[in-house]
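Section: protein folds

Sequence with per-residue C-alpha cells
===
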Amino acid sequence: MLPKLEHTDERLTRRAGLILVNRFGKSIKLASAIDRAFGAPGSNRGFAASHYVMPLTEMMIDGAVCLEDIRLFENDEAYKELAEIKQYPTADAIGDWLRRHGLSDGEGRLWAVTSSLIQTMSGGSGLTLDIDGTIIESDKGDGVMSYKGLRGYHPMLQIGIICLVAISIW
C-alpha cells in the first residue's frame, strides 16, 4: 500500500546543502572582504558588492543557467530565512553590476580577495587553484563571443570555487 500524501504549510527548500557554503562564507567574513575590495557603493542607495557577488556564487553552485534564475532564490522563503537574507537583487541589477565591474578591475579585486583566502587557508602550503570559468549564454547586445562559440557573459567565479574548495578541506 502506498503512503498517503498530505498537504503541509511548512516552508521547504531544496537548497539545504547550500546553507553550508553560506555559513562557511559568513564564518570567514567573505562578504566584508568583498566589500573592502570594491569599496563603498557610488550612491547612498547603492548596494555593497557582496550583495551581488554572493548571490552569483550561490546561483553558480546551485546550477543556475541564466541571471533570471535569481528569482528562484528570491521565491525560496525557507532558504532566505536559513541564510538570513532579506532580499536578492534583480536579474537586471546583477547584469548592470557585472557590466560596471566585469570589464574594469572587478576580476582583479575578486582575485585579491581569493588570493588572501587561499593564503589564509593554505598556511603557505603552496596550494594551487586552477579555475575554469563558466559561460552564461545570452543574446543581449553586450554579450561577447566566448572561446566555445557562444555569445554571453563570462562571470567571475573565483569566490564560489574557493568556498567549495575550502569546505572540502574543512
